[in-house]
Write a structure and sequence with these properties.
Chain lengths: 282, 303
């Protein structure tokens, strides 16, 4: 270690001319924090590749088993090939896990105390974290959903069944897949703030996103209502554009209620996390 | 200026900090001493708004830290050198902190240079030694050029050169008119660092005074005497009101009389003395004596 030298000492009075730190500075700080961890770009890149490969394989399968009879319709198949349940599972895992990670890594390392000593306004800190997370994960989700859609449709256009983003419902399908990512990420963030332990937070996030939907079916009204309010079911509703050949529930969900579910889960997650971080000792 | 008034923190039935009141003034290095578990870290966390007090107040510069939007220009703090993420580089860690408080990134290079981490700044913190992490923590505390600095056990893990450097740094910061508050559980560390002391035990205030005042108040001196006839001398000294304790190797430890008076008494009774030495209690002993009743985890404590 080199011998420390003393920098010219500014007088403490210089703190009087304090430039006001804006919320934008907090966003920039969280941006630096996120990208200065090397594992994050890799996880995003690898998981994106998995989703795109699954889409390409799905489209290739449809291409190979194409049935040219007029009775067969391929509208929904063309959409589902580009982003299916496997894609949604990877999104839940990666986005939910990343959401939990961005807060839990601070609790697990103790960095949260350093962060809060720098930014005593806890709600602002949490909001900045949530916004940066949302932006990054939404960008990732949009890139993944858009690329998968483009590749799958390019393959299927060889059979004349490829869709364009301007076809009815296609944009909604892609937007639903892209927005599903930040919803999962914010649920992860919230559980991370509540639980604070790395493994427990990530496991709970996966439980809430993956397994809770399995407990509710469309058999009864109350069960259907709960089911439709869950992020995974909401995404599935958004992904169904062509209702032919689809299972018709006695209590069908609407597209509007699916968008509302996305919004409520996101906002409620941030609100609960803000409340928890505000009240807790660190 | 740090003002702590009737500060109390209870965790369930356990009282960690008990109606603590003290003031830390600018221009001094003030040591914050107490045995392990005395409540030092809890107090510092309440000062930084990390923990909410059960009662009382803790203010920095007259304001509650928790209500400030940004902290680094008001208080620089090093609570635990481990409060960092090992996956980031030292530079990225400081850049994120600086940015959150609108501190220009040039200041990051300045503090890195100042703490001697300029060359290691591009490496990940996970590979730093404890001493390097302490330096990084000190760099973070200096980032905002704050008027108040808090350090929790900053000397842990530093090599002798680092300890000297930190002491010099603390004195310089105090000389610049800043409030420097440094916790430790070792009196010997503070003896050469602080000029004022706040001593606590079991969450209660034991002393809040200058280092010299603390030494004078707490340090009781004793006299070690080696006599030709220890039994006879013991009788004479005890009669004169002293407490005499045989010291094993023929020596006696006498408290309650000074060396001059002991010499006079020995002469009066024609007793031969071989040695007569005054021992002033060290600050460490004074500290141990004052906090003896409030040690939380005593070795060999009967169960």
């Amino acid at each position: 270690m080199s011998t420390p030298t003393l920098a010219p000492a500014p007088s403490p009075a210089s703190t009087g001319a304090e430039p006001r730190a804006s919320f934008g500075d907090l966003l920039a700080a969280e941006w630096i924090k996120l990208w200065s961890l090397r594992s994050i770009p890799w996880v995003l890149l690898l998981s994106a590749s998995v989703i795109v490969i699954v889409a390409a394989r799905g489209a290739s399968y449809t291409y190979d088993h194409f049935d040219p009879s007029p009775a067969a319709h391929y509208y929904q198949t063309a959409l589902t090939d580009s982003f299916n349940t496997i894609g949604a599972d990877v999104v839940m895992l990666v986005a939910g896990g990343l959401g939990a990670f961005v807060v839990v890594n601070e609790y697990a390392s103790g960095l949260i105390r350093t962060s809060l000593a720098a930014v005593p306004d806890r709600r602002a800190l949490l909001l900045a974290k949530a916004l940066v997370l949302t932006a990054v994960v939404l960008g990732w989700g949009a890139a993944v959903a858009g690329t998968s859609f483009g590749i799958a449709q390019a393959i299927l256009s060889g059979r004349g069944i490829g869709l364009s983003i301007t076809d009815p419902g296609a944009f909604r399908f892609v937007a639903g897949a892209a927005l599903f990512a930040p919803v999962c990420a914010l649920v992860g963030l919230c559980l991370g703030v509540l639980i604070r332990h790395t493994a427990a937070s990530i496991v709970s996030t996966i439980l809430v996103l993956f397994f809770v939907p399995a407990f509710f079916t469309d058999t009864y009204r109350w069960s259907a209502d709960i089911s439709h309010a869950l992020p995974f079911t909401a995404w599935r509703r958004l992904s169904v554009v062509d209702l032919r050949d689809q299972f018709v529930s006695p209590y069908p969900a609407t597209v509007t209620s699916a968008w509302i579910a996305f919004a409520v889960w996101s906002l409620a997650s941030v609100a609960i996390a803000a409340l928890a971080i505000q009240r807790r000792d660190h | 200026m740090i003002e702590v008034t009737e500060l109390t923190k209870r965790y369930g039935r356990k009282t960690a900090v008990d109606r603590l009141t003290f003031t830390v003034r600018p221009g001094h290095v003030t040591g914050f001493l107490g045995p392990n578990g005395a409540g030092k870290s809890t107090t510092l966390r309440m000062l930084l708004g990390l923990n909410d007090p059960t009662g009382g107040t803790a203010t920095v510069g007259g304001r509650s830290f928790r209500n400030l939007p940004r902290g680094l220009r008001h208080v620089g703090a090093l609570l635990d050198a481990g409060d960092v993420h090992g996956g980031r580089t030292g530079r990225a860690h400081l850049r994120a902190l600086a940015r959150s408080n609108a501190i220009p990134s040039g200041r990051v290079e300045e503090v890195l240079h100042e703490v001697g981490l300029a060359e290691a700044a591009g490496r990940r913190i996970g590979g730093y030694s404890l001493g390097m992490k302490q330096r990084l923590g000190i760099a973070a505390a200096l980032l905002g050029d704050p008027p108040v600095l808090l350090f929790d056990e900053p000397l842990n893990g530093l090599d002798p050169e680092g300890v000297l450097w930190v002491r010099g740094l603390f004195r310089r910061l105090a000389a610049e008119g800043r409030t420097v508050f440094v916790s430790s559980h070792m009196m010997t560390e503070m003896e050469h660092t602080a000029d004022r002391l706040v001593v606590i035990g079991r969450g209660r205030l034991i002393a809040d005074e200058s280092l010299a005042g603390f030494a004078a108040r707490a340090g009781r001196s004793s006299v070690t005497v080696v006599a030709a006839e220890p039994a006879a001398l013991t009788g004479v000294l005890t009669a004169a009101g002293a407490t005499v304790r045989p010291d094993g190797a023929g020596a006696l430890t006498v408290t309650g009389l000074d060396a001059t008076r002991i010499g006079e008494l020995a002469l009066e009774h024609r007793l031969l003395l071989h040695a007569l030495t005054t021992r002033t209690a060290s600050l460490e002993e004074a500290f141990m004596e004052l906090t003896a009743d409030s040690v939380e985890y005593l070795a060999g404590e009967p169960r």
